[in-house]
Amino acid sequence: MKETAAREAMVRLAKSLFDRGYSVGSSGNISMAVEDGLLITPTNSCLGFLDPARISKLDVQGRHVGGGRCHVNPDMRSSGVDGPA
């Protein structure tokens, strides 16, 4: 999936989860593999009001390369990203 489409899909999913009460305030995260890394909802973001441009992006080594800052589990950083799921 292309990055722009992935960002839009994440926003739709996040809004759906929020609207149905599965996420309250800034709880919960969503991530999605893209061709050259991983997209993750930024730290302290509300799933009901995500801005696609603020979704965090990590490269294949797990380094933050764009969007809002996000918390990255050390195990994830050391293992890298395998690519699209």
TrEMBL record:
InterPro entries noted in UniProt: Aldolase_II/adducin_N (IPR001303), Aldolase_II/adducin_N_sf (IPR036409)
Chain ranges of the Class II aldolase/adducin N-terminal domain: 9-69
Gene3D superfamilies for the chain: Class II aldolase/adducin N-terminal domain
Pfam family, one: Aldolase_II
This protein's name: Class II aldolase/adducin N-terminal domain-containing protein
Organism field: Microvirga aerophila
